Amino acid sequence: MVQNADPLNLCLLKVSCAECSLVELCLPRCLDPADMKQLEGIVRHRRPLQRGEVLYRRGEPMRALYAIHSGSVKNHMSVPGGGEQILGFHLPGNLLGLDGCGTDSYTCTATTLETTSICEIPYGQLESLCALVPGLNREFHRLLGRAIGAEQAMLLMLGNKKAEERLASFLLHLSRRYCERGFSPLRFNLSMSRHDIGNYLGLALETVSRQFAHFQEAGWISVDRREISIHQLDALKKLVTHTLEEETGNIA
Amino acid sequence: MVQNADPLNLCLLKVSCAECSLVELCLPRCLDPADMKQLEGIVRHRRPLQRGEVLYRRGEPMRALYAIHSGSVKNHMSVPGGGEQILGFHLPGNLLGLDGCGTDSYTCTATTLETTSICEIPYGQLESLCALVPGLNREFHRLLGRAIGAEQAMLLMLGNKKAEERLASFLLHLSRRYCERGFSPLRFNLSMSRHDIGNYLGLALETVSRQFAHFQEAGWISVDRREISIHQLDALKKLVTHTLEEETGNIA
DNA sequence: CGCCGGATTGACTGAATTCAACCGTCGTGG
DNA sequence: CCACGACGGTTGAATTCAGTCAATCCGGCG
């Protein structure tokens, strides 16, 4: 209802933040209409990117932040001894490039996983606007803080979870994020390859494949190529929380 | 020279930011004298904490950020299925509590590793001051960005490095940080236990111990209890970069 | 049709965990 | 003063989880 009647052209239109369905998730969240208007003034809309195109590259001067309007993006960096490490997957409403705040240049590369449309927010102008609009500054800090929190959650995972739990966490996380965006939490398409998932989770792609098979045999999910259906969310949740505590009753 | 003549009492004195030896590392970095004066106005100095005391706890409302004046602190959180995950070790000049920006409550717990003195910066007042002092706001953003970058580096490590490389990275990182603070990069004391190191690096404490032994047998370091001497920094560096590329010549 | 990339499956290997014994240091209390 | 236990650390042996190598499958595309 809120959206334009022609979804196919949505990404080509200059959708204002106020009209965007993602306003509750994105940077303008919680801004009053006047402040939102100001923010809209500096946002630029770029042509949609094709799958595999690079939004920005590690080391480039950080001139802008990018909000995903539709599509998905992976953040990654090459590791010194050869190879690549994926640091995150981003969905509509997410803000990219925050890592660049620390050094004035991006610390990782952002590559689209599918056709993706983007809103560009020039960083200098955002900083200036933050100085004028306290609510925006506060929200920006909140987003930075949440980026830190998200990475901490990931550190926790890589630090002490087994392959099975990692993949379950990954699926649950995706499920929740799709749900927040108004999509089904029980049926969605993975925009990333098994290789990418494994890389992200610190696992070999074969291990990812095997764990998917394992979940499927247990009847918890169905997976066909990139399409996932979750049948027993609870089973996956139990896997994530109850581990290493086989013998615990009501203790702790 | 810059410091007070009586080091034992230093932590009890109200050392101004301008006088603090950490000014180049800490939040006031790059502020002009007038702005620094303003920041000093809101900083509070707390009594030194003993080893093992908790500075703040996960879930508590985030009322302040904390700068370490002397000592060291670990950031950690309990994992759902029991156990603990350490997310970072912090040294003088580091700012703690940034993770709380995202949710208005701390996402992890901060515990001292030794006697530690702290400067407290009330968050509300800092936000207000940021609105008035653009340079401070900019610097605050930079610190948030660097926190993100630091965690990305850690994700990279946990994602695809072996035990040997992890420990070498860990030592090199500590070495560099001590160096930045004017201490010897080649001889220092670990303020954390083997258990903590292992937990942080995603390894069993026995593995940490064995790798230390391995480095020592190779003549790269000497380690006695908590005291580390690095004899061949280059050997450790080589370990971190050149891995998985035994056969590479000039390629790539 | 045959090729190619992504995904699956199987067999084998190995790095790191786990379990366990042992050691040295420190602090406490008899 | 020494005995004791607690704690942190080291070392050894057995186990296991996941990585590696390799063969095969499947769907899409030229």
Characterise this structure.
2 copies of one chain form a homodimer. The first copy, chain A, has 252 residues and is of the alpha+beta class. Chain A folds into 2 domains: 7-158, Jelly Rolls (Sandwich), CATH 2.60.120.10; 161-241, Winged helix-like DNA-binding domain superfamily/Winged helix DNA-binding domain (Arc Repressor Mutant, subunit A), CATH 1.10.10.10. In chain A, 38% of the residues lie in helices and 19% in strands. The first copy, chain A, has helices at 33-42, 123-132, 134-160, 163-180, 194-201, 205-217, 233-241; strands at residues 44-45, 54-56, 64-70, 73-78, 84-90, 95-96, 109-112, 117-122, 187-189, 221-224, 227-230. In chain A, a hairpin with a 2-residue loop joins strand 10 and strand 11. The longest helix of chain A is centred in the middle third of the chain and has 27 residues, at 134-160. Chain A is globular, with a radius of gyration of 19 Å. Residues 1-13 and 244-252 of chain A have low confidence and may be disordered. Chain A binds a DNA duplex (30 and 30 nucleotides) through helix 6.
